[in-house]
Specification:
The protein has one domain. Helix content is 96%, strand content 0%. It is built from two helices and no strands. The chain is rod-shaped and about 100 Å long.
Length: 90
């Protein structure tokens, strides 16, 4: 009777090992899929941000070409204000 119980225990332990291996493999696959999805989302976000930055750069370039004096004056004023703010903090 003890031999039958030991055999049954060994069989159940063997099945448990197989189940744990299967669960581990499933979790690995799920983690890899999630990681790939996350990477793709980040990549898409970076591509979108890059496109927006290019469009903004072109819009600024166009604005400067259309109104060069206003652009220089605005840049000067922004620099002056920034300088005053930095100087007042010292």
């Amino acid at each position: 009777m003890a031999d039958q119980d030991m055999d049954k225990l060994r069989t159940e332990l063997s099945q448990l090992r197989e189940d744990m291996h299967s669960i581990t493999e499933t979790l690995k696959t799920m983690a890899a899929d999630r990681g790939e999805q996350g990477y793709n989302k980040v990549k898409d976000g970076v591509d979108h941000a890059r496109d927006n930055a290019k469009q903004a750069g072109k819009a600024i370039e166009h604005q400067i070409e259309e109104k060069p004096f206003s652009s220089v004056l605005l840049t000067f004023i922004i620099g002056l204000i920034t300088g005053l703010l930095v100087q007042s903090r010292r």
